DNA sequence: CCGAATCCAGTGCGATACTG
DNA sequence: CAGTATCGCACTGGATTCGG
C-alpha cells in the first residue's frame, strides 16, 4: 500500500499536495480532526457513507505523511485518538482556502452538472 | 466521459475543487496556461510524459468546468489557443497557495518516501 | 497540427466478514 | 471499540490507431 510502483510526476507542488490529501475522504477527515473530532468511531459517525476500513486506510496514510498523529490508549475497551501534528496545522490554511473556494462554487457546480448532462450523458448509469 | 455514475460526496468544498482540478495534469496545465502557454503543441512540449490524448481530455474537462476557454482559428494548419476564463482566474490564488505549500514540502516528501520505502516497499517496480 | 475511437492496465475504494 | 483480509467493480489515464 505504501509503495509507489509508477514514478509520480512532481513537476509542480500541487502533485505533492495531492499525494497527501488526494484521497476521497482525507480532506474531510482533516477538517473534522481540526475541529476536534478525534476518535475513530466519532469520525465514522460523521462520515457514515465510508466504511471503517476505508477511513482507517486514509487515516493511516495521513499519519504516514506526518499530517496527523495517532495515540493509542491501551485500555479496555480500546481507545484511539487522532490529532493534527504541527506539520498538519501548517496545512490547514491551504485546506481552508481550498474548501472556501469549493464551497462558494458548489451550487453553480451542481447546476452545471445537471445542465450539461442533458447534452452529454450517454449512459445514465446501470 | 462527462457522466458520473457514482454519486460523489460534496460534504466539503474540497471535493468540488478536486472534481475540477483532480486530474493528473490539470493543475499543471492550469499553471502553464496561466503563464502564457496557450497552444496544444506547446503544452505537449512542456508535458512530454503525457500523451496528447490525455492532455486533450484534461483540457476538455477544464473547459467543461468553465475554467479555461478554447479558441479555434479555422486556418490551415489548424490553430488552437487556450486561455483562462475570469472564473479560472479566481481559482489561481488557491492553486498558487497549494503549489507553494507543496513546493515547500517536496524535498522532505521525497526523503520521507525513500526512508519509509525501506520499511514498506515490496516491489520496487519491476 | 489537432482531435477522436478503441483497447487495456493499475488503482482506489466499497461490501462483507472476521479477530482482539 | 478498533483494526484487518479478501473480493470485486468502476474510473483514470496510458498506447495505439485513424480522420480532418
From TrEMBL, chains A, B:
Pfam families: HxlR
A GO molecular function held by the record: DNA binding
Keyword terms: DNA-binding, Transcription, Transcription regulation
Domain of life of the organism encoding this protein: Bacteria
Listed InterPro entries: HTH_HxlR, WH-like_DNA-bd_sf, WH_DNA-bd_sf
SUPFAM superfamilies linked: Winged helix' DNA-binding domain
Keyword ATP-binding: no
Annotated ranges, domain HTH hxlR-type: 12-110
PROSITE patterns in UniProt: HTH_HXLR
PANTHER family linked: TRANSCRIPTIONAL REGULATOR, TRANSCRIPTIONAL REGULATOR, MARR FAMILY
Name of the featured protein: Transcriptional regulator
Lineage, uppermost ranks: Bacteria, Pseudomonadati, Bacteroidota, Chitinophagia, Chitinophagales
Amino acid at each position: 500500500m505504501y509503495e509507489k510502483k509508477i514514478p509520480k510526476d512532481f513537476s509542480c507542488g500541487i502533485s505533492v499536495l495531492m499525494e497527501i490529501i488526494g484521497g476521497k475522504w482525507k480532506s474531510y477527515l482533516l477538517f473534522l480532526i481540526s475541529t476536534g473530532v478525534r476518535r475513530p468511531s466519532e469520525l465514522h459517525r460523521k462520515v457514515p457513507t465510508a466504511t471503517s476500513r476505508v477511513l482507517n486506510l486514509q487515516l493511516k496514510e495521513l499519519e504516514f505523511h506526518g499530517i496527523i498523529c495517532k495515540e493509542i490508549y491501551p485500555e479496555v475497551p480500546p481507545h484511539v485518538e487522532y490529532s493534527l501534528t504541527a506539520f498538519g496545522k501548517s496545512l490547514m490554511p491551504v485546506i481552508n482556502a481550498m474548501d472556501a473556494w469549493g464551497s462558494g462554487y458548489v451550487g453553480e457546480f451542481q447546476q452545471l452538472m445537471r445542465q450539461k448532462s442533458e447534452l452529454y450523458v450517454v449512459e445514465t448509469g446501470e
